[in-house]
Structure formats: structure tokens, C-alpha cells
Amino acid sequence: MCTAATYKTKDFYFGRTLDYEFSYGDEITITPRNYPFHFRHSDKAPDSHYAIIGMAHVAGDYPLYYDAINEKGLGMAGLNFVGNAVYAEPVSDKENVAQFEFIPWILSQCATLKEARQRLSTMNLTNTQFSENFPCAQLHWILADASGCLVIESMQDGLHIYENPVGVLTNNPPFPQQMFQLNNYQSLSPRQPENTFAPGLELQSYSRGMGALGLPGDLSSASRFAKVAFTKMNSRSGDSELESVSQFFHILGSVDQQRGCCEVAKGKYEITLYTSCCNTTKGIYYYTTYENHQINAVDMHRENLDTTVLIRYPVLAKQNICFQN
Amino acid sequence: MCTAATYKTKDFYFGRTLDYEFSYGDEITITPRNYPFHFRHSDKAPDSHYAIIGMAHVAGDYPLYYDAINEKGLGMAGLNFVGNAVYAEPVSDKENVAQFEFIPWILSQCATLKEARQRLSTMNLTNTQFSENFPCAQLHWILADASGCLVIESMQDGLHIYENPVGVLTNNPPFPQQMFQLNNYQSLSPRQPENTFAPGLELQSYSRGMGALGLPGDLSSASRFAKVAFTKMNSRSGDSELESVSQFFHILGSVDQQRGCCEVAKGKYEITLYTSCCNTTKGIYYYTTYENHQINAVDMHRENLDTTVLIRYPVLAKQNICFQN
Amino acid sequence: MCTAATYKTKDFYFGRTLDYEFSYGDEITITPRNYPFHFRHSDKAPDSHYAIIGMAHVAGDYPLYYDAINEKGLGMAGLNFVGNAVYAEPVSDKENVAQFEFIPWILSQCATLKEARQRLSTMNLTNTQFSENFPCAQLHWILADASGCLVIESMQDGLHIYENPVGVLTNNPPFPQQMFQLNNYQSLSPRQPENTFAPGLELQSYSRGMGALGLPGDLSSASRFAKVAFTKMNSRSGDSELESVSQFFHILGSVDQQRGCCEVAKGKYEITLYTSCCNTTKGIYYYTTYENHQINAVDMHRENLDTTVLIRYPVLAKQNICFQN
Amino acid sequence: MCTAATYKTKDFYFGRTLDYEFSYGDEITITPRNYPFHFRHSDKAPDSHYAIIGMAHVAGDYPLYYDAINEKGLGMAGLNFVGNAVYAEPVSDKENVAQFEFIPWILSQCATLKEARQRLSTMNLTNTQFSENFPCAQLHWILADASGCLVIESMQDGLHIYENPVGVLTNNPPFPQQMFQLNNYQSLSPRQPENTFAPGLELQSYSRGMGALGLPGDLSSASRFAKVAFTKMNSRSGDSELESVSQFFHILGSVDQQRGCCEVAKGKYEITLYTSCCNTTKGIYYYTTYENHQINAVDMHRENLDTTVLIRYPVLAKQNICFQN
User: Fold this and answer.
1) H, E, C per residue of B122-156
2) Interface of D with C in 234-263 (CB under 8 A)
3) Which of A179, C135, D71, D285 is deepest in the core (most CB within 10 A)?
4) Which ipTM value was assigned to this complex?
């Protein structure tokens, strides 16, 4: 399915993998400040808003973002939440927000997680479809800036907003259960284990890395949650841009889905279609794809953000190998 | 520590990760056909031999290979085997081969795994040091071509040569034990599990990828063996060069060591310094490094292989990001 | 902590382990039909009620039952639910039931699970203490007869009543999470595994019983839930009284807590103080203790049940060994 | 299959479970000092020897012991070792011992483990059959007294004698591999875990007993080895006879095989047929059976041990319930 993570060095990084068996056709898409967002349940589009960069499927000039950041440093991503996501009917006493426009609605208006918390408390996430042909994706969301991280889950029993002290998200089960499972892994460590099984018995650490024995390595969402949480929480890197970005791709690489290892139908395999890493401070969107290991990037601040039209870059999906001879 | 793997599509691929807390200084090194190999226990160097390309620490013009292939399609890599590797004293009735020259000794002389099997049966792997300052590394070896794969382990009880039906290798424990452990993982699958726990009880596969629940995800050598074996044995890709190479890096990426997750001394972390993938058919050496996700490559056939001097390329360790704007 | 289970052959069996580091002093206690139950929030005791047999700490002639059955075949047990149990304040529009009298309140009045369901739907479980010196135990309950099984959990967000298709209960986390975790064990089986890891690779089942590899064996409540659920759901036995009772003790024996394996404070160890098995059809209470492996029994129908005074039998805690010579 | 264990308090205890899908018909059998042991490859029976008590299938007045102790405090048991056990042909330069008489050969002649070590060093364990109808069972052996414990494995590559610091044995794989696997469990503990996963992250020990999370609970021989080793090494009990014996049955109870959980053929289930516990100091053989939870006992010193004829007691297999009313 998918995995999202945050990472903080000097700047704040936010990104995700998108795991699926095919792509809907995505582009790195910048929504400039004057692009008119006609939110479904609003009377009029705001005159101006924060610029956004992220990965989107553009449908009829509308950016259906999978993950994005705004120019203020706030990032947001939607991840599959199949079987658990339930959206509300529009109501009259709250601000109704269609599920498909949730990411731009937040990122265009909120400069910080604090502002977003405020907006979330008064909104109603609705099951309004983008169009007849686009049923609502069953998603939950991770929302973060340098100050913290939230998870938003709309379920049968209402809209849940959780503080996320780990800064990672995958898919099912709901976030509180994912966090609860970490209790079971609490004794894992990057350091070698000590013999508490039978003190005095001669046991040996025959390999490095034995302190994390018990960490799962399969591709299910609960196992990816534990694996990426351990990797992220123990990550160490320099704080330069290159070191930070590199480390971020290693964090999400820990839950990479290899073609063949997750068969979703006869001969169909879920893979990590792309992995993104946004420097939320600098407004740069980095990504790799399954077939292109080189990191590509689009910098929102190299564009004129005071325009009205989406700025779109194709995903560079072809492996770019550097031959030294 | 390290992980090695093989992969076969139209061509045959062979590579490894090198995991450690620092680098000795490595170069992609081509040994041309007329480079004089003065093997320690031989009277004279052969006039000519097979050309070799691989990653080596070059010490005094001598290529101490970590992993390499020859122009005939045979590949070989040495991986840490600390606590188990024991080399023999030179003897008079066998062909003595110093441990440090084992890779070039095989690759310079054997065109195929079959020929290598023959040479292995009559040789004696010795504890002869490269120099006073270079004690013998404690290693075991993986040796493969398109026809099959061997593991060679020199231990207290002698030299063991094992057929390797999985085509992967990590570190401790010895190879037969690693293979034995796969018995415990036999019910894992890329497909969703069926409920055999309590037929009739309503259980659900709440996530994709649950068929491999139980696969380990920590960085110890036994866990990496299981994880990479599962990933390799279930890998699916197109058979073009780009698809094959990409898939290979995904296979070894499944056991990537992230900085911080394996602390070997206070503040010192083992990481995947580099990952290699050789097209043994075409003689191309591909690699990435921890800080450079782009795949770099050196093609031995773009060089004059009929010379006498090592051809050396630096490791491109700096991240090469492709900015699209 | 504790484990409860149900088992059905010709008759219906219900029992539990009580795991703790010391005993409060328990007796097998029969409450006859005319024992006056002055329920705390009721105006008067019913004239008569169903007789009950179970393990109780008798405080001032009041039977504080840990687990019990009534003469109609309904059984109920309270198990630790520390950190999750929250009881309500008494309210005016519901039937208030003090937590400490919950078991007799149900068992004295309900002949069947169906009747109990009805009573549960209109009651309010309160935090009323038995006395100043007896704070409310933090418990959840299993309630079962031959027709089915319920779990009752009173938490911060109210009273939850769950159908329990497995018929087992341990402690934390709440029951829905325990059930959810069984999804992760669904591929376990009493039969030998098949090689789906890498079909074609020669893997062997080197031992019997490998189909359940992955089943946990530690003494934590989540692990005991999975272990006892697997054991119960796969249990096979003859349906005679002796065979059924024997099998039942084997089921709960699978999660026996051995002294030394669960240290709760320096030198203090939680152990399985006693294990019970009630034939709910026949009204017989069987039990063993940590130090007495022989099965002891008290049969409620060998007593005059139409009396007013508790009938109490001591726990036979001393090992009764049968010497054959 | 089977599990054996030792336990030391004031006295030394030795016992085993015998797990199988049917019984060959066993009796608690005392071999008195003057019973004539005509060992197959010896010219004559010794005039006298140490008396032995244990569980045996008596075939034509010959005690085929499964497990036994002698009057000097030495105990020995044979456990299934299918696929690994290989016995030698008789040779002329060693003392040949038929596999079926291995237990009496040792126990009748050796007072201590030290003496046994000596005899083992000069013997040859042969594939001599007891009779045409009794092919050699594929076994390995545990041999222990209060001073220590050995494992004896006769394999393709010869007879192996291992010191056993844990004092437990199950079945496959060979003992060194079983011991090696304990390295993977070294961080398990009877105490609650500490959060080393992500110090600072609020994780909770929501249940007692979480320090041993990762301990396996299935019935395969490798899992039983780890489970019983943990249980035995952490066992605590008083040192009286009753407390010691009770604790011993709890230790082996931790790997009890319940009917239904290990299906060996359609509708056939391996169960723990009996569990034994010998006080090697006092010469008492205690046991329980699958259907009889009471501990039965035979005391060798209540017999005249200076006779020539086997003294046999039937296994009391019928549940003996103590009704208190």
C-alpha cells in the first residue's frame, strides 16, 4: 500500500511511498497562489492562497494530490485506509470539505500545523465525489510541519485527529492500533542484546544488528509501520541538504515493495511506484521511481508562484545511469 | 555486514552490498588480461588470463577485490564470516592459494563455475597475509555464473564447498545453518494467507502482503538471509537490461542498512557503503553508494583489456540529483 | 494475569486460570437458592434465585466470585483488565449493578446467555465499592453458555458487550484488539506447512508441529490469547466427562504460568494459582492448583441447594501423589 | 515428539515427555541388580549391576527403556531424532553397544556422569536390531546427574558427545543448532522490557510477562527447545520434594502437546502420552499421563533390588479425580 514519514535535521522533510500495482498517471504539480480553488461546498474561491507542490493526478485541470507541501512548510499525504475510511454527508453547521479536495483545502489555507488543527476542529469531511467516475478513495491522512505531526481518520464513528509522536503512517489497522503494537517492539534496539534469557549461560551475538531481532520484514501495513518507525526513530545523519535527503530515502527504502513479493491478483504485483521526499522548508520535491533510482527534483521557488495555472512536470521514470566510461 | 545475491533474466546478474562503519577506500578496478598476477605460492605469473572487473581496495598496485566478475561471466564475492573463518597453513601436496588472492585466482583462470569447481577441489586456502599490516580478513565466498552458485567456507574443520540453490549469502552462521532456517519460513508467500488457524472463524486479511508475515526485518545476518532469499526467489521483472538492473537493486535494497539502525560502537553505525550489480554477461559493473542513489556504471568492454596495468575508476559517492527545473 | 476458556463436547465446559503472585484466600463456594442477595442498588433481595458454584473470596459471608456457573448452565468469570476498566457512577434511569456483585447479579437471575444479554442491555455497571477496604478490581468479564459467549468491558467510553466467537479471554488489550491480532495468525495450522516460500526449492519439515510456527509462547496477555485460542479451536477429544475435563485442563495448561518466568517485582513471581473447569451442564466445579496437579471437584448437586447459607469447601492445595508401591 | 529436562534443588530431578500419536504399551519397570543383562556384543552378563527404574516397553522380558535413572543418581532418556540418527556397524577395536540397549548399558555400569563419559569414549553405538520386528528407533540421548548433562548424537559423521549447559533436549535439529538458536532469544527475560526502541517515545507495558515476547509457542521441536529452556533456566521453587516435583511438572507442562494441535495424519494427533519426573537422588519415578493429571509414583527403594526379575507397574492412565463432596 503506502508508507509516509517525516524527518528533521536542520530542515524538515516529509514524504511517502506510493505502493500499487499500476499508476493513474501522476505529475509533479505546482499550484500557484492564484490558481482558483473552487472548493465544492464553498460559495467562492479565495482570491489568493499558499502555493503547493506535490504529486498529483491532474484531472480536468484539477490537482488530485497524493502528497504535497505548501510554501509555508506544511505537508500532507493521503494513504490507503481501505475498509475503515467512511466519510460524512454534508451538514449545515460545519464547513464541509470534500474528501478529494482535503489536501489542497488544508495546504492552501493553513501556514502551520497549529492553524490546521484549528480548521480541522470545525470542518466536516464529506463523501462528495470529484465526479461520477471518481468514487471517493478510502484514505487517511498524515499532516505535519516541523512542530509536530497529526493523523486524520474519518471512520464510521466520526472524524479522529491523533497526535503522531512517531511521524510515520502506513495503512490498516487504524492509527491507535498501529501505535499500540509498538509496545510489543519496545525492547528492540540498534545495539547488541544482552543475555537476560539465562544469565551465566554462554550465549553469543554472532552477528551485528541482533538487537532488533523481532522487527518484522514483510510488506503488510502493520509490519511496515513497525519497520519504518524503528528506522526513522533511530536514524542518524548529517544535517546538510544532501545528507538529509539521502537519509530520508533510506528510511522509506526500508519498506520498499519489490515486484513479486506482494501478489494482489494472479500475475499482478504491488510495487513502490514512487518515493517522495519534500524539503518543506525550501519547497523542493524530490522523488525516485521503481525503475529510476536517481533522485529527481522540482523546486517550487524556481517558478513564478503568483500565477493562476498549474505548473506540471512529468515523472522521470526511465533509469538514468551514469556511465563512467 | 554484507549481503550478496544473484539474479537471472536474459542475462545473469551478480552483486552485493558492502555494509560497514567506514570504507577502506575502494575503486572500480579492471584487471586487464596481461596484468601480471604473481600468486604467492606459484613460481611464475601466467602470461595471460581472463580480465576482471570489480570493486577493490588497491594496495601497492594489487587489486584486493571485494567482489568481481570476469569477462567469461563468472562472479565472486567475499563476505564477512567473523568467528568462523579459519584458513589453513600451506601444504606441499595441494595448490596453495592465499586467502587475499582467492578472488583473482579463481576469476583469472576459470571461465565457468564448472571449471572453478575443479580448481577448488585441488586447492588449499591459506592464511598467508598480503603484508604484515594486512591480517587475513575473515571471509566466506559466493561464486556463481548463469549455471549455478557455490558457497565456499574455510573453517576449523576444513574447506567446505556448498551448492547454493537460493543464490544469496550474508554472514554468520555458516551457510548450511542459514539454509536450514529457511525451512522455518517455508509457509511464507507473496499471496494472501488462508485461514487455517480456525476454519469457520471470521478472520480477515486487513492489508495486502500478509502472506509473508513472519519474515524478519532486522539487520542481523540470519534475518537478512531470509529476507533477501524471499525477495530474490519471488522477484519478477522484465528481462531488459534496465528492468533487470533495477530489480536487482530492489532485491539488495530489501536488506539495506540505514545509518543509526545498527550501532557497532558508541556513535558508530554500520551502513550499506555500496551496492553493486554486475551484468556478468556484458561485463558491466553497476553500483550505488549510501549517499548517491543514482546508479553508476563502468563497462569493462569499453576499455582495452589487453594491457598490463590496472584500470581504476573512483567511486562516485556524491549524490547526483536531477533537477527538472 | 488470567486466561478463561470454554469447550463443548456433549456437555459445555467453562473455566479459567487465575494467575497472580499471591492468593487472597479462596474457597469453592456454593450459593444456595435462598441465600439472600441484597444487591447494593436494589431495594430488596429476591426471594429465591438460581444456585451458583464457583471460586470465591468470602468476605463477611458475601461470596466475591472470581468465576462461577449457575445451576442452569451459565458461566461467568472476571479477569484483570488493568488500565482499561472504568466503571460508571450510579444513574437513575438504569438498573445499577456494583462491579463486585456483577457475577452473582447475572448468575442468580439469568438462566441463559439470551436472558443475560437482555439484562446487560438495561444495566449500569457502577464503581460502588464492596467496602472501604476493597477498592474495585479492574476487570472485564467472559459470560457463556452452550449457545455462545460474550465479553463485557466497561471502559472510559462506556459499557461494551462483544460476541466472542473464540470463547477465550485473557487481559489487555481490549477484546476487539485481541481478536484483530488473530488475523495475523490465520495461516497457522496443526498440519505441516507447504513450501510457498520458493516452490521448487528443497525445504523440509524437519519436525512435527511446524504448521503453527509463529504462535507466541511468552506469558503476556496478548500472546496467551493467541496460544489458547489456537489450542482451543483445534482441540479434539472424546465427549465423555473424563475425556472432556482432561482436554479442558490441557487447553488451559497451554498458558500455564510457571514460577520464575514472570517476575512482577524483585523475587515475586506471578504463577497460575489455580485452574478451574466447570461442567456447566452437570454443575460440577473441577480445579487444580499450582502445587496440586490432581483434579479436585465439588458437585453442587450433591448439596441441598434450597438453603440460605453459603456452602464452602477449602481449596486442596497440597500435592496428592498416588504411590503405586 | 518429546522433551526432556533436568532440574536441581536439594535433589536432582530428571524427566521427559513422550509425545506420540499412540503408545506401544509401557510400564514403570525396575531392573533389579541381579537381572542378567546379556548385552548383544558382550560374551557374558555381569554378575551384578546398578538397579534401574524407568519407563519401558518390556519385550520378552527385556526392558526397552525410554527414560530411566539408576540407583546412583544417573539418568538417561532417548528422544526421537528422525532423519539424523545413523548408527554404526559393529567394529572390532571398540566396545560395541546395540542402540536398543544403550540406556541399560550405561545405567547398569556407570555411577556418575564422569564414569559415563569414560565409557562413551571407548564405545561404538551399533545398528544391531533388538529383533527382526524391531527396527532401530532413530534417537538421540540426554544423560545427566547432579554434576552435569550430556547429549549423545550418532550421525552420519560419527558419534557426537556434547556438554549440555541448559539441561534440556527435544528433537531435530541436532543439539548444536538448538543451542545456537538460543542466541536469538538472549534478550528475553522474565522481567518487563525497557523501551530501547525509541527512548522518549511513550510506550507502555500493557501486560505482565512482556519481557519474553518473541518466545515461540508452537509445538515444533525447535520451538519447544527454546520454550522449555527459558522455563527451566528461570524456574524458581522451594527445594522440598513436593515443591521440586511440582515445579518440574510445570517446566515440562510448558511444552505439553494438546490433542488436535499437531496433526500427523488425517485425524491422528500427537499428544503428550506421559510426562515423567525422576528424583535421581531418592530413586522415585513420578509420572502423569495425558488423561490422568494426578502424579503417580513408584519408589525403587521400596522394592527388593537384589533380585533377578523385572519389577513392573502398570501406567495408571485413568483420571483419578478427588471429589470433595
Assistant:
1) CEEEECCCCECCECCCCEEEEEEECCEEEEEEEEC
2) 234-237, 242-243, 245-247, 249-251, 253-254, 256-263
3) D285
4) 0.97
